[in-house]
Amino acid sequence: MALKICINLILKLLMISLITWSMPGHTSNDFISVIRPDGQHFKRALQGLADDLDGELIVEDNIMSTSSGVEYIKQIMQRRPKLVVLMSNHVINAYTAYQKQAKPDEIMPPALLLIALKIDRHVETMKNATGIVYEVPLATSLIYVRSLTQQPLNKIGIIYRSWMRPDIERHRQFLAPEGVEIVSVELPNESSRYISLIKKALKKFRSNGVDALWIENDNALLKSQLLRKAWLPSVKRFRKPVIVGVDSLLAKKMNFGDFGALPDYYVMGVQCSNMILNIQQNNWQLFDEDIEQPLAIKKHINLYNLKRKKIAIHANRLQEVDVILR
Amino acid sequence: MPSFAQLARQILSTAASTLRQRQNNTLFLLLLGLASVEFTWAESLYVYVPSSASAKSIQDQIRGQCNNIDVLAFGLSKDFHRQIKKASPGAILTLPPVLSRYPNFKLVNRGEREGSHQEFYYIVSLNSNVTSDELGQHKVALVDVLGRSELKSYLKTRFPQIKRTTRVTKYEDLIALWIFKPTTIALVPHGHLATLQNKSKLTFVMTKTDQSVGLPILAVEEGKAPDNVIACLSSFKAPLNSLFGVEQWR
């Protein structure tokens, strides 16, 4: 009986090795670990990544719950993946803690960060890490909106908190060659007067000829109380396009977002695969892999709002939009 | 507008749920069974051609034009190939390099623009002129219609000098690349240059190469004669043809 089990086990091991070796372009034991929470968006990004790698590398998928932490990461790292893909702020925080606890001489494989807010700030505190920015850049959103609207979009209004200033400056730099100016209002990082400050900023935008409003994905400025008491009453009087980055702000009855530029998770996975293959080509070293901006978006439009605001659009270009709310 | 097969399925499903409400279980199960059967008499067409229009919009427009065929349009090459593997269609509308993967499909119609079935590739950059010989010094951005490994083989025959690529799924995604990395060099077929110029205020430098790519084609499965699909293609009006970058089909 024991002999039979042993033979069975050996045969299975032989088969696994054979499959592994026969994978196209696959070399020895190279595998990468994806560490992610459960969820549709993460799964879609993983699908894009795996589809694009198409067997070139073994992809190990690890679903990490919010109750797991450094210990979970440690177990994965003991298997020595060639590279790790970290999705979500929780996973990245746990991995950063793992890096901090590790011995100074421990070699860290390259880490690619995905689907987490402010990835550039995480990368600054980590060893051997890069990634793809999660937030859709203003420039990408603007190109989409500009191709649809029949009115000029030369001045964009943005309200942001002080800690986001570097991001706003980056947007400013990206938009300059496209002939677009950012009119911004900076709010303190913490304040009990956000309601009046937001109202004041929006009043300023109405009076100084801003062509559109871009809403930063900042939870602190988009709390339900602020939405109810500051944003919604003021935006109602703002007869220009409002561009948002999350679908909840596009809801028909909310009367808030007119255009939405949301991440395309599948393409983000493909983009990540591209980066992985470049790193592999470079003998698993990060070389010139800068943090990348997301290239593709899912385009949303709220026609109901646009009609109410009497904002004209090129009807023949609606065919380019992914989600249309009527 | 749904196709005949879709309509038939819809009618059967509705009848089944009415019977269910009236508690006629035997008939309900029978009709439900029929409704779930894939009707095979409708000719099917799969479409994969990168376009600024969404796959859903292309699909709806073709369905609106031809309600006697089953149409599925795809925005991603992987989804297109996966679906062909799952259920082979009677015909495919795609680009010639994509067709070469399916030897059991034979070409029946070619898209034509300005009297040609081909269009040249252009090297597009900002500010400076880049020649074909210099492509090897750059990471070249392009729309990937073939999938990573097939694209590699395709480039080997057309642009063997290219060593590193950045792959995107739509031509307009290239604009984002130029905004974030102004040194980007891209390879774009002539018909898509207008997309870049219409959507961006950047000043592009475009250099014609001596390599060309075929315009979209219609191919049918060997041994099949999907007359309705062929008739449907000939009925495409100018706005629908322009989504495929062609003026007519021959």
Key features of this structure:
heterodimer; A: 326 residues; alpha/beta; Rossmann fold; 2 domains; seven-stranded mixed sheet; five-stranded parallel sheet; 11 helices; 41% helix; globular; B: 250 residues; D-Maltodextrin-Binding Protein, domain 2; 3 domains; six-stranded mixed sheet; five-stranded mixed sheet; 10 helices; 11 strands; 38% helix
Give a structural overview.
The complex is a heterodimer of chains A (326) and B (250). Chain A is of the alpha/beta class and 326 residues long. Chain A contains 11 helices and 12 strands. Chain A folds into 2 domains: 30-134 and 265-281, Rossmann fold; 138-263 and 297-325, Response regulator (Rossmann fold, 3-Layer(aba) Sandwich), CATH 3.40.50.2300. Chain A is globular. The model of chain A is unreliable at 11-27 (pLDDT under 50). Chain B is an alpha/beta fold. Chain B has 10 helices and 11 strands. Chain B has 3 domains: 1-39; 42-114 and 215-249, 3-Layer(aba) Sandwich (D-Maltodextrin-Binding Protein, domain 2), CATH 3.40.190; 118-213, Periplasmic binding protein-like II (D-Maltodextrin-Binding Protein, domain 2, 3-Layer(aba) Sandwich), CATH 3.40.190. In chain B, the strands form 2 sheets. A 6-stranded mixed beta sheet of chain B has the order 2-1-3-10-4-11, sandwiched between helices. In chain B, strands 7-6-8-5-9 form a 5-stranded mixed beta sheet, with helices on one face. Chain B starts with a helix and ends with a strand.
